[in-house]
Amino acid sequence: MKRSATERHWPHAKRLSRRVARVFAVLFAAMSVLLPVAAGAADDAAPLLAYGARVAGDDARTRIVIEFDRNPEFSIHYVANPVRVIIDLPETSFGLKPESLEPRGLFDAIRYGGMGAGASRLVLSAKGPTEVTHAEVKPEEDGKGFRLIIDAEKIDRARFDTLLGDQKWTGTVRVAKTDRPAPAPAKAPGAFVVAVDAGHGGIDTGAIGSVTKTEEKHVTLDFARDLVATLNREPGIDAFLTRDGDEFLSLPQRVQIARQRSANLFISVHADTLRQKDIRGATVYTISDKASDHLAADLAARENLSDEIAGIPLESEPAEVADILIDLTRRETQAFSVNLARSVVTSFEGQIKLINNPHRHAGFRVLQAPDVPSILLELGFLSNKEDEKQLLDPAWRKKVSELLAVAVRRYRQTAVANGG
Question: How far is CA 58 from the centre of its chain?
């Protein structure tokens, strides 16, 4: 009796299937070893999660406890004028209830957030000279997390000055995984380059919306992205963002990025809050050694606190721009800034709501580039519910971006005609 083809080849098929089975067994064994390693690597690459916190103590001693999903590496530093305790961490997602780190005891403000380049930070603003006397990480009793415990005590000024003198720290984030990449070159030689700076970011949230509780740093970035896209549709204009994510940049860094890209203009975008909730409308600010009014002076003072909020020592500011408010030899740049501000106001008039006297001036540190005409655009106020609604409206943002593009185009034509 003849066997079928299947029957004739069956011994060979069985031997082949056994070989295939052995190959799969080896592959499965390898995967069982490699997958946990890969998962562990992914876990290491993922941000830490801070999921709980508490603060206890009085004006003599205060303890802060923060719970993490993994063991957090940390370092502690001090900053003076005002006194701040800085706790640097790897990149961390802060899933904390706001009330869990409500300041008390030695501290009158506690802020936390990203610092860019894979790093995060807590800034503990102290009421007076303070020292961390004990800091450690302990595993949770259930083995499912870790606690960072910080004990701080009140000390005298002499002891605090000694702490400052002994530390070898310049304000940089030592736990950062990578350095911030150098800004890319301009798209085309001879292009008119515009730096668009989204105010705040990372640990510095900026103002908070009165109705939606939206953070200013998100409002400014959304608008800045729209503005850059609109400007880049203009022939001969190359617009770029100083930050394109929720990262912290110091005020000097923002200035340096604009100068490194040889920017012809610098536009810093903000949406602040005021105690007077009925005040609304856009404002355009230029730099000056004397504020035009109390509102401008107060706003500049708050905006200039951005680095302090993040725990950046003021002495880390580059010397070449530190004296902009004294060195009035940069009057030509200031004159171009004023021209830009006037162009923006003209473009906005009759189209969007403006504050009374919409062009104002004060000592904004972010406008300090000595060779780049710069303005700070206050889009509106998150403290006013009508302004807040507009700031969150994509159609309104598009309209304002287009009006700004008209102002930049007009300014560029005048500047080029005057050799600027």
Answer: 32
Given this structure, which CATH class describes domain 192-417? alpha beta
Q: Where along the chain do the CATH 3.40.630.40 domains lie? A: 192-417
| Integer Cα distance of 121 and 123 in angstroms | 6
Residue 101 neighbours by CB under 8 Å, 6+ apart? 53, 55, 64, 66, 110, 112
* Number of C-beta neighbours around residue 169 at 10 A: 15
> DSSP secondary structure string, 28-57?
HHHHHHHHHHHHHHHHHHSPEEEEEEEEEE
Tell if the pTM clears 0.85, that is, is over it.
Answer: no
* Distance separating alpha carbons of residues 278 and 233, to the nearest angstrom: 36
Q: What is the CATH number of domain 48-166?
A: 2.60.40.3500
- CATH 2.60.40.3500 in the chain: give the residue spans: 48-166
Task: State how far the Cα of 374 lies from the Cα of 330, in Å rounded to an integer.
Answer: 12
Give the separation between CA 404 and CA 393, rounded to whole angstroms.
17
Half-sphere exposure of 165 (CA within 13 A, CB side): 6
**Average pLDDT for 210-214:** 91
Radius of gyration of the chain (CA): 28
Order across the sheet with 374-378: list the strands.
237-241, 192-198, 265-270, 374-378, 282-287, 354-362
Residue 193: both structure tokens together: 């380059």
**pLDDT tens column, 352-379:** 999 999 999 999 999 988 889 999 999 9
